[in-house]
Design a protein that fits this description.
The chain is of the alpha+beta class. The protein has nine helices and nine strands. It has two domains: 63 residues, Phosphorylase Kinase, domain 1; 189 residues, Aminoglycoside phosphotransferase (APH), C-terminal lobe (Aminoglycoside 3'-phosphotransferase, Chain: A, domain 2). 45% of the residues lie in helices and 15% in strands.
Length: 274
């Protein structure tokens, strides 16, 4: 991999996609440029995570780091294939097999030791809970749960869901590592369970589509959880991690999820007090 400014004079190709933190452009033969927007520093964690995964084959290779007009860009191997969410929408009958692939790739991620310069996941979650719009009793409950959960040294993706898993002809590749952290696999697994169970569909999704999504996601979640546990030590304290993530998720400001996640936390708090 070349230096931080190498390739900065090259012109990016067509825009391939855009998100809140970055835009993705074609970049020469077999590569893409992920150009982070000003004010977002996710490239630091993403670059560290991808370096640790370089020989694993389960993520695009980091080829270079460039600077364009003061914006940091990561030049990444281009993986040709749809993301798993798109494939599930087009071919829902494949849900069982895709759930198994989702779990297998996640287990492979958790076999990798996290770089020391990645943030500690418990610290990240604690900061998010502090920022979440929670009543004091629910914040204290979530902070208390987090205090009893362990640190870890495994690579955690931080936002692992079907939209961040690409399926090429010969491999599965996990993308979007801006939220990568160090922690225990159970914590990262619980974040995925939260997203599969409770993440709100995109705004504008019709009611009928929402109903179909609800049925499909229940099956996907069950099969993913079962496949993740298969052949490995049972994940520990997943329920506690799930509640911690529910509290932290509220800091993301998704209004459609607020009542549901707050209700989940309140019921768990009341049950723990009995």
């Amino acid at each position: 991999m070349s230096g931080a400014n190498a390739g900065s004079t090259a012109a990016p190709g067509p825009l391939l996609g855009a998100g809140r933190e970055a835009e993705v452009y074609a970049w020469g033969e077999g590569a893409v440029l992920k150009l982070y927007r000003p004010g977002f520093g996710g490239h630091i964690a993403e670059a560290a995570a991808l370096r640790s995964l370089d020989s694993q084959g389960i993520a695009p290779r980091l080829l270079d780091t460039v600077d364009r007009d003061g914006r940091t860009g990561l030049v990444l191997e281009r993986v040709s294939g749809p993301d798993m969410l798109t494939l599930l929408q087009r071919q829902p009958w494949r849900v069982l097999g895709l759930a198994g692939a989702l779990a297998a790739a996640h287990r492979a991620v958790h076999q990798v030791a996290a770089p020391a310069d990645l943030p500690d996941l418990r610290t990240v979650l604690g900061a998010r809970i502090h920022d979440a719009p929670l009543p004091v009793q629910l914040r204290d409950f979530a902070v208390g749960l987090l205090g009893g959960l362990p640190d870890g040294d495994r690579l955690c993706h931080g936002d692992y869901h079907p939209g961040n898993v690409l399926l090429a002809a010969d491999r599965t590749a996990v993308i979007d590592w801006a939220a990568a952290a160090r922690g225990v696999p159970e914590a990262d697994h619980a974040r995925t369970l939260l997203l599969l169970r409770w993440a709100d569909p995109l705004p504008g999704t019709p009611p009928l589509s929402r109903a179909l999504i609800a049925v499909g996601r229940s099956l996907l979640t069950h099969r993913y959880a079962h496949a993740y546990r298969r052949g490995a030590a049972p994940p520990r304290r997943v329920d506690s991690w799930l509640l911690v993530h529910a509290a932290a998720r509220l800091a993301e400001g998704i209004d459609a999820e607020q009542a549901l996640l707050t209700g989940v936390l309140d019921r768990a708090r009341r049950m723990s007090a009995r």
